[in-house]
From TrEMBL:
Keyword Lyase recorded: no
Annotated GO MF terms: hydrolase activity
InterPro entries: Glyco_hydro_43, Glyco_hydro_beta-prop_sf, Glycosyl_Hydrlase_43_Enz
Key words, A-Z: Carbohydrate metabolism, Glycosidase, Hydrolase, Polysaccharide degradation, Signal, Xylan degradation
Family recorded in the similarity comment: Belongs to the glycosyl hydrolase 43 family.
Record-given protein name: Glycoside hydrolase family 43 protein
Superkingdom of this protein's organism: Bacteria
Stored PANTHER family: ENDO-1,4-BETA-XYLANASE (PTHR43772), PUTATIVE (AFU_ORTHOLOGUE AFUA_2G04480)-RELATED (PTHR43772:SF2)
Amino acid sequence: MKTLICNSALLIYVMSMPAMPLSAQEKRELFFADPTIYVEGGKYYLTGTGGSGKGAASGFAVLESNDLQTWAPPTRADGQAHMILTKGDQAFGTEGFWAPQLLKEKDTYYLTYTANEQTVLAQSQTLLGPYRQQEVAPIDGSEKNIDSYIFKDDDGKYYLYHVRFANGNYLWVAEFDMGKGEIKPETLKKCFGQTEPWEATPAYESAPIMEGPTVIKLKDKYYLFYSANHYRNIDYAVGYAVSDSPYGPWVKQKNSPIIHRSIVGEHGAGHGDLFEGLDGQLYYVYHVHFDQQQVTPRRTRIVPIIKQWDGEAGCYTFSVNSNEVIKPTMTNKR
């Protein structure tokens, strides 16, 4: 999670543990905040804010895994980061590289991310990059916006879900032109405001914050998963809302939040992404606070999602299997 209302020191907070050769510690936990996992070719690929490896604060590193538990840099055994996007390498941004998302359209891979509090789209012909831009620029430089998620509907239209600032962080959506890399301004619409008690707990007071969107579609219903509260709040958590349209109106679900410290047992649990595992299971990857006294660097977690059909409501309900939270580790043994 990142927010305009933080002071400048927090905007460039420590995003990873000090570099440590893997030979000195065979396995260690992952420290990717705002994580996402992409699945392809029988493997998992994880990236996020900061992360494990020297240089990860100046772009985005990636790790790969066969089982979600043990991760390593692709094609490398020296413990150094494999960078899929690097500051200054034909890509927008000088600081604040946050919240990446990987997606593929036809033969092109795309990476959408935040830098300098702007949403950016870069591309590559290979999954592992490097991701670059033909024209180095943000998607919409008219005002600050962060935490991008690109959703493709069944009719082929794309939508950019993201955060804009107005005395807080709010989720917005606009139709997105993948070819031009631009939103259609006339379609821009705010998703919703802060309305639920769990979205604003007194543990850490702040302006309203709703961020970290992920959208999926099931049986003609749209499900928007998002995080609320300030990321430094121990009650940072994940809930979801349902709609008949990618623009809303969104109905927040009563069983939210579905990921919270009271459920998964760790503070600051939120801002991640949904993905379907190689086993067909739905998972959510997210971050938590370092421990009960310290927020950063944030640890990476993965939890199975339980999806159940509610015939009366005409939509799915979601919860998590808190007994099977995965604490992924990084290793030099491949």
